[in-house]
Protein: DNA-directed RNA polymerase
Organism: marine sediment metagenome
Amino acid sequence: TYLEKRAYERVYPDGFVAMTGAAGIKGLLKGLDLDELHRSLNDELQSNVAAGNRRRLIRRLEVVDQLRGSGNNPQDMVLDAVPVLPPSLRPMIQLEGGRFATTDVNDLYRRIINRNNRLKKLIDMGAPEVILRNERRMLQEAVDALIHNEKKETPIRGRDNRPLKSLSERLHGKHGRLRRNLLGRRVDYSGRAVIVVDPKLKLGQCGLPKKMALELFKPFILHNLESTTFSDFDEIKNKALRGKMPEVWDILEKLMKTHPVLLNRAPTLHRLSIQAFEPLLVDGQAIHIHPLVCQPYNADFDGDQMAVHLPLSPEAIAEARELMAAPRNILSPANGEPLSLP
């Protein structure tokens, strides 16, 4: 504080160094000798200390050991440069009238740049320390908002009075970078739909909605059309892929006889949670399954959904037919008891 500074000026009239904020913390960490601190903490632990102090010393020693083992310098824990996302991850689009639509992160970066430039200008002008201290605090608040705007007591808000989305919010949650893009992705030759019962099917058959089948087998349909007289007419091929030509259903039925599909119901708890079926075309938007395959899937018909996957290679198709087909999995692999019971 100011009073402490005046007191030190009287004790050290020849001058002393005083730092505050992140600069002060970085200065303390810079002068830290981890090996010496490790020895002193060990020596202190060997002496008779109270239980509460002993736990505190052990926690400090664990942190010191981790820093020594990693080879990191403690002063590197203090940020002196802010990483900037690539432009493709924070796009900006020009609208009519010269206005721009931009992501929230750009606004947060802009605040940091403006406040940093203003602080630099004040330092060059030789502004009083009280003004510089206030500017440094505002710069720190701008950096805090970039990292985690939602945790601030008064978050920075946009024009619509909505808190701006910071970097941490882009990472966490169901729609964050980790769960949406890294832990799971949309893949080709797959689909998902609600299941309904269809007792008319055979045990090894399933009903695929026509719209889903067109999308699943789209490359195969195009390949078949290429060998016909329609190969030079893109408009006719697009019409066929929309199901507007009767010939496309004949092609689909031929393809389905040679390509089984895999049905998976989450949670996938054992190997019978994924089984192979011969697909048949059905109307509507739901996948049809035989009632006797419900038990291994632990499925019912109150809104359950199943994922569809299309094996492509000859080896995958053979494996699906020989090992994963529903008629070949009527006994439990755990105890040998029958699963396909009415």
Q: What stands out?
A: The chain has 14 helices and eight strands. The chain has a mean pLDDT of 87. The beta strands are 92-94, 100-102, 190-197, 205-209, 261-264, 274-282, 287-289, 305-309.
